[in-house]
């Protein structure tokens, strides 16, 4: 491509963004990477800087994310002049605002409460400017737009735990180590779980011997709620090639599933997992999909190139193994798109999760050979499709998340203990937006105008399980064909999206709205109970044929008050 053409594409891309969305011009140059105008594999764009490295990310409204870093010398400063370790990122201005965290967050986790507040727990020792985060619980409340911290609340220390939104509306914290480590070991293992808020006055640990049996690759356990109609809280837990279902009510293992073929999937041989989209047409039968990882804790070891799918409703099921789109990958992120496909992105071809060893020219990168392209998984066809490549390696401490406009935010990468810029794999602040192929369809995109008469995305709209909700939807181009879904966007860290969930909704009726052109009244039925999708914030999405809605609608889902 010659320089003129590149310039033309650059200007053209910039103009489209400016006109269509009427956004303020970004202070950073936009880099359009649309592979010569072929949009059929999606496009990448660098849109801004994250302020802090995005070790964790979570979506707090239709246009805002919060990022959380470990303790390090970021350029973004708190009001007291100290480097911030958390930032709110605005997708309309592409600016980061420092948030107030005063305890060390390294390497903690998070999940949403049913009341819409996010809980983040754990961390490491403090320093001159930060207090210890070892037993800290932090709450992010979007009405305040900032954090508040409760120190000394957790009964034990947990590095690399998993957190999960439970059907009760509380949050589970499970596993982890009592000290920072590359690989877990008996002397620091924390084979237990706890709840926030606690049912009593203080948080209490409950024993989980399975996490003793599964050393050493049991950090950031893969944990999901299994849907059921018996009012149980059943968890799927996968660590170190073993999987169980566990009943939180009785504290007992219900099933041990067959051992998973292939390598290891948990930190630092990090893979990723999702519950495949749940649907009312088969009564929400849950299947888990686990992908990537590594076979050995060695720098030169090639990443795991397999994925497995397991039916969780029976202990007789066998792992259905598939390749991972033809590429070995350690530290992949798995992100649901609006149409129920899964985007696997980020990570490396070799090595394991962790920081580089040594510095300068002798630096040894323990995760190497970045995989720059995502693969898109279609769970109906059971096929992977490789998509357009980014130019930014995203190694340890990187994230990806669906944005309600159908794009994907991809940021982070920081395979070192402190900010390092002039190195092969720097502390990465560039925020990228990936526009998947479905955004380039010619089919008109539906625009959700209102939900239960409320204009969407002003504030969370309160809805209830089993409720029939009414949407007003505009879409041009003749009779639409709508499918509907709920997505809980979760909390993303270390290639795990804690609580991420995709649930298809029944579309009950579509009427033409005679008060306006191209407008429809659509009713959809919300899921029966909180084991299908946890209470708390989610987004309701529509597709018209292959075209995702202009934006999902943010809701706060709970049980109908009695
Ligand atoms: C949600 O619940 C937590 C824990 O009980 C509480 O601290 C927080 O203030 C609540 N948030 C809202 C928005 O009510
Ligand atoms: C509408 O969508 C549904 C679900 O994807 C599909 O089964 C059906 O064939 C579609 N109808 C038309 C007319 O395309
Ligand atoms: Cu980490």
UniProtKB/TrEMBL annotation:
Signal peptide span: 1-22
Q: Where does the record place the Galactose oxidase-like Early set domain?
A: 460-551
User: Is Signal among this UniProt entry's keywords?
Assistant: yes
Domain of life from the UniProt record: Eukaryota
Q: Which UniProt keywords apply?
A: Signal
Q: Which Pfam families match?
A: Glyoxal_oxid_N (PF07250), GO-like_E_set (PF09118)
Q: Where are the transmembrane segments?
A: none
Q: What residue stretches are annotated with the Glyoxal oxidase N-terminal domain?
A: 82-438
- Say if the entry is tagged with keyword Signal: yes
Q: What is this protein called?
A: 6277_t:CDS:1
Q: Which organism is it from?
A: Funneliformis caledonium
């Amino acid at each position: 491509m010659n320089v003129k053409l590149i310039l033309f594409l650059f200007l053209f891309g910039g103009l489209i963004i400016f006109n269509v969305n009427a956004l303020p011009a970004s202070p950073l140059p936009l880099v359009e990477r649309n592979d010569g105008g072929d949009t059929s594999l999606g496009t990448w764009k660098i849109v801004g800087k994250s302020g802090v490295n995005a070790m964790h990310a979570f979506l707090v409204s239709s246009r805002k994310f919060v990022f959380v870093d470990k303790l390090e010398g970021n350029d973004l400063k708190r009001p007291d002049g100290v480097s911030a370790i958390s930032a709110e990122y605005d997708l309309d201005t592409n600016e980061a605002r420092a948030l107030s965290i005063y305890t060390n967050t390294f390497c903690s986790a998070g999940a949403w409460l049913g009341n819409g507040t996010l809980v983040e727990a754990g961390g490491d020792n403090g320093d001159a400017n930060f207090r210890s985060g070892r037993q800290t619980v932090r709450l992010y409340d979007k009405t305040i737009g900032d954090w508040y911290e409760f120190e000394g609340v957790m009964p034990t220390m947990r590095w690399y735990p998993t957190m999960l939104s439970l059907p009760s509306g509380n949050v589970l914290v499970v596993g982890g180590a009592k000290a920072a480590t590359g690989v877990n070991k008996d002397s620091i293992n924390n084979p237990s779980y706890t709840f926030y808020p606690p049912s009593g006055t203080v948080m209490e640990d409950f024993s989980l011997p399975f996490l003793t049996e599964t050393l050493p690759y049991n950090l950031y356990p893969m944990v999901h709620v299994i849907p059921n109609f018996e009012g149980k809280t059943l968890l799927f837990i996968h660590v170190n090639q073993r999987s169980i279902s566990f009943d939180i009510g009785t504290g007992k293992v219900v099933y041990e599933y067959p051992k998973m073929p292939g390598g290891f999937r948990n930190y630092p041989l990090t893979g990723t997992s999702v519950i495949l989209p749940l649907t009312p047409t088969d009564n929400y039968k849950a299947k888990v999909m686990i992908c990537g990882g590594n076979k050995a804790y060695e720098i030169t070891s090639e990443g795991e190139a397999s994925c497995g799918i397991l039916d969780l409703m029976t202990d007789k099921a066998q792992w259905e193994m598939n390749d991972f789109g033809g590429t070995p990958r350690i530290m992949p992120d798995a992100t649901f798109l609006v149409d129920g496909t899964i985007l696997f992105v980020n990570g490396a071809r070799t090595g394991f999760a962790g920081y580089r060893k040594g510095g300068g020219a002798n630096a040894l990168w323990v995760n190497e050979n970045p995989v720059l392209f995502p693969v898109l998984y279609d769970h109906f066809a059971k096929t992977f499709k490789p998509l357009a490549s980014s130019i930014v390696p995203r190694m340890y401490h990187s994230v990806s998340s669906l944005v309600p406009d159908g794009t994907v935010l991809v940021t982070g990468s920081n395979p070192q203990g402190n900010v390092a810029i002039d190195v092969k794999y720097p502390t990465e602040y560039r925020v990228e937006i990936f526009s998947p192929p479905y955004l380039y369809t010619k089919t008109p995109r539906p625009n959700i105008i209102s939900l239960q008469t409320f204009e969407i995305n002003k504030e969370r709209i309160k809805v209830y399980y089993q409720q029939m909700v009414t949407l007003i939807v505009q879409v041009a181009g003749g009779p639409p064909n709508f499918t509907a879904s709920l997505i809980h966007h979760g909390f993303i860290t270390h290639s795990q999206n804690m609580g991420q969930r995709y649930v298809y909704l029944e579309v009950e009726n579509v009427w033409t709205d005679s008060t306006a052109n191209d407008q429809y009244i659509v009713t959809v039925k919300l899921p029966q109970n909180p084991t299908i999708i946890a209470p708390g914030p989610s987004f309701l999405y529509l597709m018209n044929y292959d075209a995702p809605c202009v934006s999902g609608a943010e809701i706060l889902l709970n049980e109908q008050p009695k």
